[in-house]
Amino acid sequence: MYNFSFEKVKSVEEAVTAIQKAEDGKFVAGGQTMLPTMKHRLAGPSNIIDLSGVESLTEIKAHNECVTIGAMVTHRSVASSPEVLRDIPALAKLAGNIGDPAVRNRGTIGGSIANNDPAADYPAAIIGLGATVNTNKREISGDDFFTGMFETALEEDELITSISFPVANVAAYMKFENPASRYAIVGVFLVKLSDNVRVGVTGATACVHRGRRLEDALNKNFSPAAIDPVELSVEEMNSDIHASAEYRAHLVKVMTKRAVEACN
Amino acid sequence: MVNVSMSVNGKSVTGEVEERTLLVQFLRENLRLTGTHIGCDTSQCGACVVHVDGVSVKSCTMLAVQANSTEVTTIEGLAANGDLHPMQQAFKDNHGLQCGFCTPGMVMSAIDIVNRNGNDLDETTVRKELEGNICRCTGYHNIVKSIQAGAKSMGG
Fold first, then answer.
1. Which ipTM did the prediction report?
2. What class is the B86-154 domain?
């Protein structure tokens, strides 16, 4: 790991000032991806700005058919939050299956989505639930937030403050996980609303996306059988040592069917 | 360089470290507490698990400076007055180790599992909760038995 300057800030304003002053600054939330990346020298920021002292980023609030989760809330806290368990149980379950217990004690929702790993779990929930990402500057629709592999709509000095999720009692997240890392080889977050269905797909392609063809099929007929005739583009699927593109395309349909079964 | 101070196993410690120093390096190299092991160094194997403010963390994936002002417990801090902690005793009684390299992390994770799930643990729970700790000797069977037994004796 290359060395860096370290600063622990107490407020969002301090954090933004610090990153504006830094030559090549990075915010660190839980550090569960950032530190391994720096160890591999894939990142070498000049300044690390630690957000763990910003108390305003650690709240979970339920209000107006919405649950708003602070950016620094750990996976463990989301998994065990009474508000999340009551209003969006599928999201609590997702959080409780990220990584392993020690990782969940440090890793945060804000850090996960700011990183936008193509195999991360939370992005599928942001897309599936139609969540809104709140920053120090604006509100960003979940559909507009993830822009490419490890790329987001965030500007250099923009900080996620919280994520607002609409309440969803009929929802399910199904993931086919890598048995070593627990990352999603394919993960499908399905939400059944009163008038339509939303599907967020992670792990399958370079960036999390909405499964529009799956949604169209399920809007006509909300049953596992409706998924059978759906044709997915194999060319767009990731292919690596863990799974071929064809296998991932198959898994997207299998995980979607399982999610439909869980919602029925 | 940066000054850090924290409580480790109930004692106040201080040190001057590089910003990039990992908590596990600080524990092993500055404090000479070599019971906490570095296995994979990629936050997968769990040999480096310690408790920070009462919860398990992988000390290879936390900076020493991030542990500033916290209370850290390592495997060396478990035994009281020469008596093994009930979880350590359970690993001994149930042959829950062979080479022993993963054992400090296993024991620290095991206590965290009990803290979160109580003293009556079924096998499925223990195996799921152990996802972040890798053992290459035992096949896990006796580790699971040890944790179930240790959980019971921690309850008194």
1. 0.95
2. mainly alpha
